[in-house]
Write a structure and sequence with these properties.
101 residues, alpha+beta, GMP Synthetase, Chain A, domain 3, 3-stranded mixed β-sheet, elongated
């Protein structure tokens, strides 16, 4: 029992999940799984989804050549495919950035 009195088990579990970051870890692995399904084997090893902020999926890219290729030629197609695979994430666009920048 804490100083503030007994606590509901559901509330205690929710606090534990928040403190330990389990929800964030799960969300990250889900995001990576949806990204792998979107890009397939072609770009999985050279790209990494970072986060979704304000409807924009931020993806890190290994090389400037791939950054240019994805941005110029594949962004709309990948956005549409990602939206179909994970509509609940409400991604409106994808922004690619070079790793380390």
């Amino acid at each position: 029992m804490s100083a503030r009195g007994p606590q509901l088990l559901s509330q205690a579990i929710a606090e534990l999940i928040a403190v330990r970051g389990f929800a964030r870890t799960r969300a990250t692995s889900d995001l990576e799984a949806f990204w792998r399904k979107t890009v397939g084997e072609a770009w999985t090893s050279s790209t990494k989804p970072l986060r979704i902020a304000r409807g924009v999926l931020h993806v890190e890219v290994q090389s400037s050549a791939l950054l240019g290729q994805l941005t110029a030629f594949h962004a709309p197609e990948l956005t549409q495919k990602f939206q179909q695979l994970a509509p609940h994430l409400k991604v409106k666009s994808i922004k690619f950035r070079l790793k380390g920048c």
